[in-house]
Amino acid sequence: VGDLGPADLEGKRVLVRADLNVPLDDSQNITDDTRIRAAIPTIKYLLSNGAKVILTSHLGRPKGVTPKFSLAPLVPRLSELLGIQVQKADDVIGPEVEKLVAALPNGAVLLLENVRFYKEEEKNEPEFAKKLAALADLYVNDAFGTAHRAHASTEGVTNFLKPSVAGFLLQKELDYLDGAVSNPKRPFAAIVGGSKVSSKIGVIESLLEKCDILLLGGGMIFTFYKAQGLSVGSSLVEEDKLELATSLLAKAKEKGVSLLLPSDVVIADKFAPDANSQTVAASAIPDGWMGLDIGPDSVATFNAALETTQTIIWNGPMGVFEFDKFAVGTEAVAKKLAELSKKGVTTIIGGGDSVAAVEKVGVADVMSHISTGGGASLELLEGKQLPGVVALDEAVTVGSVTV
Ligand code: 3PG
């Protein structure tokens, strides 16, 4: 079918599903506008080709109509970034919305109210999806962060609105988190961290099929140490995952993946920002102490391994980086990736806490790709199909995407 160009868009009503689920503080100020900024290129492209954009998103997890989950606080920032005044509807469907859509000029944006104010959204009720679809002539899904949800505005609507296509952001996320990871420039290293191995089992198993080097950090390493018979003091351990840890180590060997666990750790006498700390070998954690970060020898070994690569995916922090004292390992990884990215290595930050770490260090701009998805990134990295993507027509995107 090809790309959607000017001829397809002039005067057309385009329903754009974005993920504008941004954090707000108690005064309803946006504390991180990344997701809004990420949604702008697709909207601008549609506007510049004369389309009428009907923008829909969820915010939070409201149970019914809840004023504090209104999308109203997003309007000023959206308007500023788009350079036009965005109109806002007080509803998602219904006669008032229909009137606003009918009066919408070419090149204008109407933001619908929080789509989760209708319980039919998460239930993916066809009647609701049909009403959403009836507002527009075509559908663009750019909500990567919500693509793992089979909801009315991400999946159901595609049954009633053709064509249904991917926006630039969704396409870019797929190009990196699926394309570059499944077909990487080698050597390909994956860095997986986070506190629990249980939440990363699928990701590790899937990456073991694809990567050449796997670096593990974060709280999950203590489950691996314990599985190897090391004493871990009072570090976090998932006792019911010891066998799994052993089998993951065996699988790495079988696949010829070089799996590196940290050789030294920074330990603390309590879980607190002001805890006493010391660096010890991973095999020498005393009783009563817990590991909260990887140590300098591990950083050096990880860096040396990363130096050899052409593609790196990172998901999950190396330690408790919310506490400055235990953020050193995570920050070192962020800095190394920034350095390698500048040298042409493809660096992909796979969502969640690693994104926060990269932003904290101030190196977000130099990475090849920073995912806007949390759960969606994990599911994609696990090799799962995302319902919001599966539902789209194949081989159609808005414009031509170059990454
Ligand atoms: C997210 O923040 O991960 C997405 O916006 C999806 O939100 P949800 O987990 O409430 O579906």
UniProtKB/TrEMBL annotation:
Its EC number is 2.7.2.3. Pathway: Carbohydrate biosynthesis; Calvin cycle. It comes from the Eukaryota. GO terms for biological process: galactolipid biosynthetic process; glycolytic process; reductive pentose-phosphate cycle; thylakoid membrane organization. It is found in: Plastid, Chloroplast. One of its GO terms (cellular component) is membrane. Keywords: ATP-binding, Calvin cycle, Chloroplast, Kinase, Magnesium, Metal-binding, Nucleotide-binding, Plastid, Transferase, Transit peptide. Its main location: plastid. GO terms for molecular function: ATP binding; metal ion binding; phosphoglycerate kinase activity; protein kinase activity. Its cofactor is Mg(2+). (2R)-3-phosphoglycerate binds at residues 35, 116, 149. It catalyses: (2R)-3-phosphoglycerate + ATP = (2R)-3-phospho-glyceroyl phosphate + ADP. ATP binds at residues 200, 291, 322, 351-354. Substrate binds at residues 19-21, 58-61. Transmembrane segments: none annotated. Monomer. Belongs to the phosphoglycerate kinase family. This is Phosphoglycerate kinase. It comes from Brachypodium distachyon (Purple false brome). The chain holds residues 80 to 482 of 482 of the full protein.
